[in-house]
Amino acid sequence: MSAVRVLVVEDEASFADALQVGLAREGFEVNVVHDGAAALEAFDRCPVDLVLLDLMLPKLSGVDVCREIRTKSTVPIIMVTARSEEIDTVVGLEVGADDYVTKPYRLRELVARMRAVLRRVDTPSSLPDSEGPVGIDEDVPNAGRVQVGNVVVDRDRHEVIVEGAVVPIPLREFELLAFLMENAGRVLTRDVLIDHIWGYDYVGDTKTLDVHMKRIRTRVEKDPKNPNLIVTVRGVGYKVERLTPS
Ligand code: CA
């Protein structure tokens, strides 16, 4: 298997150098750029499996870079911030980042987060693009496909289809929606959802889950404020109702 390609966007030389050396030692193929504009240029030029994105950057902020990448790709993005630059976690997640690391961090911690995000996407790094898993099983054409109401989640194609139209969705939201839909009719507790998506060792704000749900609802619900597909079970968790296609 070829190395996982990481685009590191970091303007501070000390961090950039440490990441270049440290991540290469961990077996990653590292491309470092130092500002937001260069990040987008590099992203368009060479396919990558993961983007490590500093928040405060010259030319274009990490938030802008993230937002721009999300218009064309579901590649995993980990945002990096310094404590002094504290951005609301929610902002980072709303622009489509998959995870979040605060400086200073240990390389070991960062690598663990990177591997966790990559495990979830499970994209062979030899693919010409990193748009999602392929390898559709010809014998079982609809194996990874679930439909509830007028929403279809297709794991093989990594697609969400609402009323017949493909809706772009970041990786984590996709995973959450797929997991809920595959368990339609069952209430999934907050703990179960967080464990499934972020891992049992997730330490962080549980508000993150609600932010993701809110985002998913804006993509799949007719009226996100009065959802009829994904319902909140107060004090417990969430449930996808068993709707029939209309
Ligand atoms: Ca910076």
Descriptive notes:
With 246 residues, the protein is an alpha/beta fold. The protein contains 8 helices and 12 strands. It has helices at 13-25, 36-45, 62-70, 89-94, 107-121, 171-182, 190-198, 207-220, and strands at 5-9, 29-33, 50-54, 77-82, 99-103, 145-148, 151-154, 159-162, 165-167, 187-189, 230-233, 237-240. Strand 11 (230-233) and strand 12 (237-240) form a beta hairpin. The N and C termini lie far apart (44 Å). Mean pLDDT is 83; it is low at 123-141. Calcium ion (CA) binds next to loops.
What is shown here, in short?
With about 250 residues, the protein is α/β, with parallel strands linked by helices. It has helices at about 15-25, 35-45, 60-70, 90-95, 105-120, 170-180, 190-200, 205-220; strands at about 5-10, 30-35, 50-55, 75-80, 100-105, 145-150, 150-155, 160, 165, 185-190, 230-235, 235-240.
Note the main attributes of this structure.
21% strand, five-stranded parallel beta sheet, alpha/beta, 8 helices, Arc Repressor Mutant, subunit A, binds calcium ion, Rossmann fold, 246 residues, four-stranded antiparallel beta sheet
Please compute the radius of gyration using only Cα atoms: 18 Å
Low-confidence stretches: 123-141
For the record, give the distance between the C-alpha atoms at the N and C termini, rounded to a whole number: 44 Å
Q: What profile does the largest beta sheet have?
A: 5 strands, parallel
Indicate the structural class: alpha/beta
- What is the CATH homologous superfamily assignment of the largest domain? Response regulator
Percentage of β-strand residues: 15-25%
Overall tally of domains: 2
CATH architecture of the largest domain: 3-Layer(aba) Sandwich
CATH-derived topology of the largest domain: Rossmann fold
SSE string: EHEHEHEHEHEEEEHEHHEE
Q: What are the distinct ligands in this entry?
A: calcium ion
Helix amount, in percent? 25-40%
The counted number of beta strands is 12
Overall morphology: elongated
> Would you tell me the overall average pLDDT?
83
CATH top level of the largest domain is Alpha Beta
Number of helices: 8
Major β-sheet strand ordering: 2-1-3-4-5
